[in-house]
Amino acid sequence: MNFALTLLNWFRENGRDLPWRQTHDPYAIWLSEIILQQTQVKQGWEYWERFMHRWPTVEALAEATEDEVLREWQGLGYYSRARNLHFAAKQIVALGHFPNTLEEIKQLKGVGDYTAAAIGSIAFGLPAAVVDGNVYRVLARHFGIDTPINTTEGKKLFQSLAQSLLPSSEHSDISPSSFLLSRSSFLVPPSSEYNQAIMDFGALQCTPVSPNCSVCPLMESCEALRSNRVKELPVKLKTLKIRERHLIYIYVRCNGHTAIHRRGSGDIWQGLWEPWLVDEVPAGAVILRRHVKHVLTHRILYADFYLWEVEERPSLPPEYIWIPESDIDHYALPRLIENLLDYQEL
User: What is the rounded CA–CA span in Å between residue 218 and residue 2?
Assistant: First the structure.
């Protein structure tokens, strides 16, 4: 059976019913794609609804402050996505309309080839194939490709293959009228439905661990299953070196106020706020939590957290500001700091 048609038939029975699939609004679709970068659908769904409720249009998002956007993003991690989202909203408003070609969409801050293809195909029906982790896995297994996916050769090979498999309205096996999804009220172009189908197939059926190959609609043509290489594919070269870093935070309490500062550029958590970060613990500070582990993509953090209660404000570096303790929730904080501040003895 035709590869694309098999996926489309599977998708109509098993595809995820997601709110951003019930619209052609490019703003809603773009927002979902940015949120779902490095984020599971279950978690991203809540944030998408929160953003759409607070900023229902790109113009509203562009008028927000960066602090407001970062605060709403808090807990999702990879905060550069939020800053890029806000910057791109201003780009779109300045342009006067949402860009509707791949090249224009790629000009938006934080949008690469995959995101541009997803937005372009889903919002505008552009014939652009998406290639994300799910797509790599499905194609590598089905066609038995062992070229590493994180090499230049691999990226070109998989992108070319994905594009060649993309159906069009003129596809001999698929009629345009068949693209009316039962859960929506509008026609979905072939490129859009196929892209969503292969991503869902990788997320739900051809999963990274323990895929249910015995009920897979592609089992008869899957090369990895035939050659017993399902667990081996796709191939990815190990290039990431994980580093460890030790942080010491002091929560300074002085007459109902505490000191925080905004992290600068060139390091983790750019633009977010944190308590006093020190190299040496001041006399009188009491340890609350020690060696709290926090895992990031490129490093593992270990944090010690102290409480220092004083009657007079100590001399701190000029970038620190004093705020009422009750106002700290108004500032965008890294998840690690949130966890530390939630400590019951604080």
Answer: 10
CB 289 within 8 A of CB 340: yes
Question: How far apart are alpha carbons 28 and 232 in whole angstroms?
Answer: 37
Q: Which residues pair with 293 in a beta bridge?
A: 302
Global pTM? 0.79
55 burial (CB, 10 Å; 0-12 / 13-18 / 19+) is buried
Q: What are phi and psi of 159, to 5 degrees?
A: -65, -40
Q: Which residues pair with 323 in a beta bridge?
A: 258
Q: How far apart are the first and last CA of the chain?
A: 63
Nearest alpha-carbon partner for 35 in 60, 55, 10: 55
Q: Is 33 annotated as catalytic? A: yes
Rounded to whole angstroms, the Cα distance separating 294 from 296 reads: 7
Q: Look at the chain and count its residues.
A: 346
DSSP string for residues in 171-228: -TT--GGGGB-TTSSSB--HHHHHHHHHHHIIIIIS-SSS--GGG-TTGGG-HHHHTT
Give burial (CB, 10 Å; 0-12/13-18/19+) of 122: buried
Looking at this protein, which amino acid is placed at residue 314?
A: P
Q: What are the b/e assignments for 64-100, b being 16+ CB within 10 Å?
A: beeebbbbbbbebbebebbbbbbebbebbbeeeebbe
pLDDT tens per residue across span 50-107 = 999 999 999 999 999 999 999 999 989 889 999 999 999 999 999 999 999 999 999 9
33, 72, 193, 274: which one is catalytic?
A: 33
Express each pLDDT in 247-286 by its tens digit. Answer: 999 999 999 999 999 999 888 999 999 999 999 999 999 9
Tell me, what amino acid is at 265?
A: S
> What's the rounded Cα separation, in Å, for the pair 118 and 129?
8
Helix (H, G, I), strand (E, B) or coil at 99: coil
